[in-house]
Amino acid sequence: MENDISQQKNLKTKHLLGYAAYPFFSLFGALTWAWRNMYFALIGININLLSTAQTIARFVDLAVAIIAGGVIEKVRLRIFGGGKYRPWLFIFIFVITFGIIISFNDLAPGNDAIHFIVVLIGALCVSVSMTFIGAAQFGLVPMFAGASQVDRTRLTTWNYRITTVATIFTSATGAYMLTWFGTLFKPPMNYTVMSSSFAFFYLVGGFILLHTAKPFDPPQDIKPGGPGAPEVKVADMVKAVTTNSQLLIYLLASMFNQIGMLIGMNIIIYFWQLVIPYTHGISPSDSFPGLYTIAQTTTTVTNLVFSMIGPEVGKKLGKDRALWVGMLFGSFSATLNFFFGSRYWLFYVGINMIGMFAGSLSAGFGINYALDCGEYGLWKTGQDHRLVIMSMNTLPGKIAGILGGFVMFALAAIGFDSQAVQAASAAGGIPAFVDDAFVRNYMVLMMGIPAVCRLIAAILIRFFYKIKDADARMYAAENQARREAAAAAAAAAAGGSGE
């Protein structure tokens, strides 16, 4: 029987906008982050040294991702007015701002040891901050929405759509803004000034979210004689994750899917900087920022349309079907571009849109997949480890980041040389190592391997993930009813004892 509580619509537009504020402004804050490898190449960092520092940071962040949910559950901070999640947001929006700024500062030109330390510190600040901020954002979803599946999906869908709008602006203007900064400051200083300026958008979005979350995340004072900090045992956390079959399937599929995405993201800039100039016989400057900006603007504007249509189609398909269908078509898109993308840049852009629309089918649900797994675990065991389980949602991305990061080593193995890129960039030409063999191997890395990974992810969700929309509604409604009954019983017992 349908439970009305799961279909209630209580959140106002200001709540939806406030929740989406941080992801929206963080895209402006990270405007140059996607180009950090270009910056590192410009200042002459050895690619193997760079990859080693980034890999170490990812392993540390992986460990942090495992414990972040438990730390937030157990530790109650009193700063910034207290609350369960807001203090963590307050701390880490400053840490991530610092991480962006330091990453784009060449503190000791030509000093490999200092370069290594700066890359490592910057990567750790950014990745660890994203882990804690993400966990806090995830935890706020059920606090904002309660058991309402409608409001939970509204939060994540608005979050997706609003960040898509920001992506359009950053994609359309980012390269040209960097070029404009280059007219004021000689490269690579243009990266430094731009990243330092835009990093403060993290603070803007963070404080808007902090303000919006205040009534939903009130201070939880721990007074003498009152309830203590919640006991979150490591064994319970491990058990909550390892015995939740649906969570494990979702995490494994998500990991394969994100490996496919991150491999391409890590090296996509070289597609426009090296591959397209070579295969199309044009100058690198015509390709980047020229064709790159056209492609990014076209795809992001189209993605805005998809963000309006895709989630509605996804709702009709259901969460699980929207997820595996999206993964399957993402694999199909990558396969086509593996064969044809390097030869026809317009074809690459058009086919990439198939994958974008496929991703939009499930993007509106966001963290609700992991939250459904958490509600399932609570319904099954009676133990509330939803935040711990939701914080595991970042784990596939961390693992994928580590594995996907090895693509930089693979890139070096097929002939990529950052010093040759630096020299060719100064001369306005293409490095000598770029030939037919390099292009073929590059497309295997950027499209071939991701296509296989995303196909595996689709198979896992299609045949092994069992939580349907009706199940998710039932788990959430029954869990809330149990909590309310327990609270009423505790109140009655306290009243009967004269307290």
Key traits:
single chain; 499 residues; mainly alpha; 20 helices
Topology of helices and strands:
Blueprint: H1 13-29, H2 36-42, H3 47-74, H4 86-103, H5 112-145, H6 149-184, H7 189-198, H8 201-213, H9 234-242, H10 245-280, H11 284-317, H12 319-340, H13 345-363, H14 368-381, H15 386-391, H16 395-405, H17 407-413, H18 418-427, H19 436-464, H20 469-496
Brief overview:
With 499 residues, this protein is mostly helical.
Structure, described:
The chain is an all-alpha fold and 499 residues long. It contains 20 helices and no strands. The two termini are 39 Å apart. The model is unreliable at 222-228 (pLDDT under 50).
Characterize the largest beta sheet: strand count, sense, and whether it forms a barrel: none
Question: What helical percentage do the residues reach?
Answer: over 70%
* Model regions low in confidence, pLDDT < 50 over at least 5 residues: 222-228
Tell me the total number of β-strands: 0
Sheet/helix structural class: mainly alpha
CA(first)-CA(last) distance: 39 Å
Shape: globular
Number of alpha- plus pi-helical segments: 20
| Mean pLDDT over all positions | 87
